[in-house]
Every structure is written in C-alpha cells, then in structure tokens.
Specification:
The protein is an alpha/beta fold and 236 residues long. The chain is built from seven helices and eight strands. Helices cover 37% and strands 19% of the residues. Helix 3 (101-126) packs across helix 4.
C-alpha cells in the first residue's frame, strides 16, 4: 500500500484486491501477482515536480455504478492536479448502496469536494495563490444539476444529508462543478479496470514518467516506446 503514495496508477487495482485480504482465493493471489509483475516492469516510474510551474488546483471526480458484485456498492475515485502533475488521489468503495448512477456520482463528487477544500487550505499556506473557487470536473450532467438545485425531489430526497455538503460549497462559490466527457475523465483510472490504451493515456495525464536514476532526471518515454513498455508490463 505504501507505493500508492507516489504511484496513482496502482490505486484502483491495489485497493480492489485489498478488499479480500481476510479470505483470499487463488483468483485474488493471481491478481496480486499480476500487479507485482506490472510494478516490476514499471519500477522506475514516478512523479516529477518542477519549481515555478502553474499552481492552479484542479480536480476530477468519478464513480462506477454497483461495481462490487457482492454488495453492489459503487467505487468512488478522485484525482487532483497542480499544474500537470497529480498531488492527491483516491480509490475507495462507497459506504452505501446507491440507486442510480447520478447518486453514485453525486456521492463521489461530495467526497472530492471535501478533499478539495483541505488541499486548497494547504496551498494557501505554502504558496501565494489567491483563488477562492476550485474547479472540479464530472462526466455526469445530472450530478452537476443536482449540486446546483436546492430543491429535494423524488430521486434525491433519500440521499444522506452529509453528501449535500457539495450543494453548500457550490452555492457559496467555493466549488465550481463542470462537465467533461468520459474520454477526458482522468479519475476514470481510479474506479474501474480500463483497456491498455486508456490506462496508458490517463497514466500519462497523471504526470507519471520513467525516472532515469543514472542521470538523476525524469524523462518522458517516447510514445511508441511507452506503449510497448506498458503492454509488456501489463501482459506479463
């Protein structure tokens, strides 16, 4: 689990297998071995931060729907970027069973908003940024409408009051929830297993690079080489 502190690309897979630590089966052991093979093939990957770059905080929030086949709970995920690098991320199963994709996405966005406020306060203390409103991206239009609508209706009246914290933040102008397409949803890598192409695309967006220890520098792989390297690690 300690690798997740610097490897956001491992968050979903590691958190998924961690749910079965009490009674693992052969399938779970095989999944862990595959993760370890991927780590071995990408052991030199890491995040590289440069001084003086853009310090704007931007977040992405996403959720699958009833992805856990045992209890039908959904998985929330969020990613926060400062400039072009990920600084905070999470993949976590939701505490309740949701009745729609909108509800699952709304709960994910509420958790993301809480993290956004905390990160914003930290950045305010360590930098000169003076931006009050934080931009969060979500790929569910109904969730965005629900966050701006103070009226309870049939499809939302049962949602726990703690998750409506998002409405207050939106009303006060502290959070700006905007729509993005599913193809641009960076937090998608935190909620479900993706195709190799999508996985590599979002991994690059997170700012993970191949770190050359001999030169003590981080260099981006050439696109073709990166794809071959990732494919070899994923298939191994």
């Amino acid at each position: 689990m300690y690798l997740l502190a610097t490897r956001p690309d491992l968050a979903f897979s590691v958190c998924l297998v961690a749910r079965f630590m009490e009674r693992p089966t052969e399938i779970h052991v095989a999944a862990v071995k595959r993760i370890l093979r991927y780590v071995k093939g990408t052991v030199s990957y890491g995040l590289w931060f440069e001084k003086g770059k853009d310090d704007e905080l931007v977040g992405w929030s996403d959720s699958d729907y009833a992805g856990d086949l045992d209890d039908r709970k959904s998985t929330s995920g969020y990613v926060f970027m400062v400039g072009s690098k990920a600084v905070s991320w999470c993949s976590k199963k939701q505490p309740i069973v949701t009745l729609s994709t909108t509800e699952a996405e709304f709960i994910a966005a509420a958790n993301c908003a809480c993290q956004a406020i905390w990160l914003s306060r930290i950045l305010d203390h360590i930098s000169s940024r003076k931006k009050d409103c934080i931009t969060l991206y979500c790929d569910n239009s109904s969730t965005i409408k629900l966050s701006k609508n103070p009226v309870m209706h049939g499809r939302s009246k049962h949602i726990d009051v703690r998750f409506h914290f998002l409405r207050d933040l939106t009303k006060d102008g502290k959070i700006q929830l905007l729509h993005c397409s599913s193809f641009e949803q960076t937090a998608d890598i935190m909620t479900k297993a993706l195709s190799l192409e999508s996985f590599c695309k979002f991994r690059d967006v997170l700012g993970l690079y191949y770190c050359n220890a001999h030169k003590q520098a981080c260099q981006a792989y050439e696109p073709g080489l990166l794809a071959r390297h990732a494919r070899a690690a994923a298939v191994a």
